[in-house]
Design a protein that fits this description.
By secondary structure, the chain is mostly beta strands. The protein is built from three helices and 37 strands. The protein folds into two domains: 111 residues, Immunoglobulins (Immunoglobulin-like), CATH 2.60.40.10; 374 residues, Neuraminidase, CATH 2.120.10. Strands 6, 7, 9, 10, 11 and 37 form a six-stranded antiparallel sheet that branches. It starts with a strand and ends with a strand.
Length: 493
């Protein structure tokens, strides 16, 4: 860990006031210490000690930049610690310690330099011959997860520079989400654990969806460990799902009560007359506290009419294949059943399926509004239901060359069951992705879209024009938009 002491700095205590000088009680900065947590080139901690208790904050800026950033003000104390996060590697920064009074008292200007980025974390994310307008991202960052070994999460800016980084020593990072309390919730697993129950390959011409879901064309993105960390990289919670017999996959989120809600494997016994006794597999929504105690589980099998399900025999190993958990504004669940080409809303208390949006659902949609094998439906800040339409098995496109994925948003009248398309933003056909992917609205009105199978993360406008493209060297399950306000605990934006 890098550690050095700065020289002691005596705060300026004389201040001009209505044409004459007066002296306040003398407050001295006794020491300033700088440390780099975990020896990362992206973070710097500044420790300040005073001789008398006072409120303090830090002003800091990258050398050569006009923009000055400011940490949040600490409470009145003798000892203060400030986290400077998302710094640029191999860069020199300047800073001042400010004692926050009626007339702020500032220290002399100090400086430090971040170390170069570790060679294994330097990637050619942005290519000059692809769209690369860094302003398209706005003030936020893009969160990516690497599920290989060693696994990591990285936040990348519009220039393609990693500005935040966290790594696990033994496990890959399957996926991650931002929580309501400004932390990150991640699902981890060994890199080799990628699918389950792989059947013998059927005839190559088979179009049986059950085969594709279980054969590795989609893969099983399962997790064995849940971890919650804060933005300094401190681990707050670690839950061993394997020891609890829980197979969590595809999505995990934190609700407003700070409980963990995730998609888990679930089953029931096939007790249909004239059918062999067998296990029917599907998914459920599980809620646990941050200690790993299971609070409740919703299973569609409890509401499902298996006697009249014509698809059940071909899909008995993965009937629903939920790939998303999110929350409507009333805190009820939204989930995605790509097999049905539908988004479902579920009453979080009763378990009743309130409505289904999509093919053969409760809302009448035009042909060009239907979506196929979709991912990541959620409610945006402006109230639309936004999802990523993968476009697989779509009758609109009979050949692979013509298939096209897109972001599509709807305005819903849930009472009268009417839906109107607000916008559709198709990504280039060369970046069609049959599986995985996501679409999120940025604060500036652009869209962040992930073409997982091609390793592309795109920023488009709402018509689909590509403004920015990141090229990953791995398959990103999804890319999450990290807004600037998530750092509000550490700095003023």
């Amino acid at each position: 860990m890098k550690l050095f002491k700065a020289i002691s700095v005596l705060a300026v205590i004389a201040a001009a006031s209505v044409g004459y000088y007066y002296y306040t009680n003398q407050i001295e900065i006794e020491t300033i210490e700088l440390t780099s947590p975990n020896n990362l080139p992206l973070d710097e901690d500044i420790h300040v000690r005073l001789n008398k208790a006072a409120d303090v904050y830090i002003e800091y800026w990258k050398e050569g930049d006009a923009a000055v950033q400011q940490t949040v003000r600490s409470g009145s104390a003798l000892s203060h610690r400030f986290h400077l996060l998302t710094l640029e590697p191999n860069s020199r920064y300047k800073f001042r310690v400010v004692i926050d009074r009626a007339i702020p008292t500032k220290s002399n200007e100090q400086s430090f330099k971040t170390r170069p980025q570790s060679p294994w974390m330097v990637h050619d994310w942005i290519k000059a011959d692809h769209p690369h307008d860094e302003k398209a991202l706005g003030n936020g960052l893009v969160l990516l997860c690497y599920r290989g070994y060693p696994g990591y999460m990285a936040m990348v800016d519009g220039k393609g520079t990693i500005r935040w980084y966290w790594q696990d020593e033994k496990l890959g990072v399957r996926l991650a989400s931002l929580t309501p309390r400004g932390t990150i919730l991640a699902l981890l697993a060994p890199a080799s654990k990628d699918e389950f129950n792989k059947p013998n390959q059927p005839n190559k011409k088979s179009t049986n969806a059950s085969y594709y879901l279980r054969s590795g064309r989609i893969g099983f993105v399962g997790g064995t460990v849940l971890v919650e960390i804060d933005l300094t990289g401190k681990e707050l919670t670690r839950i061993d799902l394997d020891k609890k017999g829980i197979v969590m996959h595809h999505d995990v989120q934190m609700d407003q009560q700070h409980n963990i809600v995730g998609i888990v494997r679930d089953f029931r016994i096939d007790d249909r007359p004239r059918h062999p006794r067998d296990t029917l597999w599907g998914d459920a929504i599980l809620t646990m506290d941050t200690k790993g105690n299971v609070l409740k589980k919703w299973s569609p099998w409890t509401k499902w009419d298996i006697q009249n399900d014509k698809k059940l025999d071909s899909l008995k190993h993965d009937r629903f294949h939920f790939n998303t958990i999110s929350f409507d504004r009333d805190s009820n669940y939204l989930t995605s059943s790509p097999i049905e080409n539908q988004v479902w809303k579920i009453d979080a208390k009763t378990g009743d399926i309130l409505w289904k949006l999509g093919k053969d659902g409760d809302f009448k949609l035009k042909d060009n509004e239907l979506f196929y094998f979709q991912h990541a439906p959620h409610i945006t800040k402006t109230g639309e239901l936004l999802l990523f339409d993968n476009g697989d098995f779509s009758p609109r496109d009979s050949t692979t060359a013509n298939k096209q994925s897109r972001a599509i948003a709807f305005k819903l009248d849930q009472k009268n069951k009417t839906a109107s398309m607000v916008y559709a933003a198709p990504i280039p056909k060369k970046q069609f992705t049959a599986r995985m992917g996501s679409a999120y609205a940025l604060d500036n009105g652009n869209l962040l879209q992930t073409s997982s199978k091609t390793g592309s993360v795109l920023i488009t406008d709402k018509k689909g024009q590509v403004l920015w493209e990141l090229n990953a060297y791995f398959i990103p399950y999804r890319a999450v938009y990290v807004p600037a306000e998530i750092w509000s605990k550490y700095r003023k934006n």
